[in-house]
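B., you asked whether I could sanity-check this one before it goes into the benchmark set. Here's the sequence:
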Amino acid sequence: MAEYKERKNDEGVVIGYIRATDEMHIPKAIGNRDYQRFLDWAAEGNTPDTADSYAPSLPEAKTKRTAEIKIEAEGLFRANTDQYSNQYAMELAQGKTLTPLPANISTYYDAMKQAFIDVKNTINAIDTGDEQADIVTTSTTEASFPVLT
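And here's what the prediction gave me:
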């Protein structure tokens, strides 16, 4: 067993190393003292153990899925409201009186925000004690976003 083991991300790219003595995660970051020690160790001809396929922790899986859903929500909101944003920008640039947003846009925004909060709370509540099952549940959790009417 080597003193270090590779740490990979979801795509299989080495993002750092794990020190065997204390399981310290060491990022590949110039200026990091522990990373410099690793580089010195490797320069002596040592090779780290190959990483097992990377499996995120439950907190990492929750953070990642929440970020993905946030991007989905923002994209959906923009796709449904761009015409109003463009109109507002043109009126502002031309010094015209701004047309008030239709009430349904404000209602839609509030509904989108609440749907995101609901799915975020659902994701954060996942914890059956079986981390691998919880990670799968987290990564497959879907949001139910409203439709602009």
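One thing to flag: The beta strands are 4-8, 14-19, 25-27. Otherwise nothing jumped out at me.
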